[in-house]
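Per-residue structure
===
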Amino acid sequence: MGRVTSHVPYTTDAPTCQRTPQGMLSEKEKLDALTQLGIELNLVQDLDLLMELILSEARRFVNADAGSIYMKDGDQLNFTYTQNNTLQKRLNIGEKLIYATFSIPVDKTSMAGYVAATGRPLNLEDVYQIDAQRPFRFSRKFDEASDYTTRSALTLPLKTPEGKVLGVLQIINALDDAGRCVAFSRADEKVMTLFASIAAVAVSRAKLTRAMILRMIQMAEMRDPHETGDHVNRVAGYAVEIYEKWAGNHHHTPEEIHKNRDTLRMAAMLHDVGKIAISDLILKKPSRFDLDEYEVMKMHTVFGARLFQDQQSDYDVAAAQVALNHHERWDGQGYPGQVDVAASARLEDFPSLNRNRPGKKGCEIPIFGRIVSLADVYDALCSQRVYKEAWDEERALSAIEQSKGRQFDPELVDIFLNNIDMIRSIQQRYIGRAQ
């Protein structure tokens, strides 16, 4: 079946047929919202958080129960993000959906692949009743695994003004005023096509920002092979999850949390960028450092912070805080301690100056530094290094728990351990690709 011209109610007992809390937008509200959409989307700098916002807003525009985003990578589409109100309601308050990551080819055999290959939207009234003459089919695996019923689906290309397809936006199960599953109308398709074109511009910009950050990481990677795109994306992902729960515990406003998530994620990716100033003789040493080498290595925190001294934005402030403080310890035994970043210019002077300087302690360490410290250590424990094999999860989690109140903020350790399912999901998302 192809496009539809009106909402047609379905008769089904599937749990998708429930009223969403957002309610339906009027046509005037949709037009007004579109005028603000580009501005709002362009305020979000991080690619992952931008896709989350795009999907939330897309669903709100047409009162859809669920949706997903796929990002194009060569001839593959990577399943990147998903939302589902019905499945979310089955979770406890504060929990998030855990979803598997996978890739599908950019071809005409799947709905998303078809849209990516042709660059045209696809509006299906019922994915279980696709005309046999169509080249694509709906995979029932997700529905069967999650006890969910997909019916209507509107799948749109995220296409730049130049015609380049960046990915695919898919929204599922439109709901009418009574919360019944209906088809997406031609008016829905029209407004969402415009929505997708606006979103694609924001995605293109965010991809450029991400690419610039990853190029900085690659510079560090040339010096330190452990500082990979996968590593920094995992650390950043862990950090955002920890921060959200911490901020909720401390009654921060949703607006503040939203803003800080974006800032923290980019700052966390650059936590070790100061290593570009450390000698290869130290960075690439195939064994543990001696005392003098270790003192020189500590200087990467200061050099990283110095990169962001000319602070033009909240991002610069956060990146400087993270770079400087991600090796501080809750018990005060970390580094570099209370140091004048601007005055610490000479690498050769640092070992003798720093060896006896106490580290910051407890809440003297900025929260972003405390969070990234925990995220970074966990990922390092689970990764192979020249001086050690990768630890299994049980051993790594045991080490984190034993360091509670010593190396790490106790509250953050509790948050981390209580959200290990989401940590695992992020870990799997960034194995083998640095998007």
About this structure: The chain has two domains: 27-206, 224-429. Confidence is low (pLDDT under 50) at residues 1-22. The CA atoms of residues 404 and 413 lie 6 Å apart.
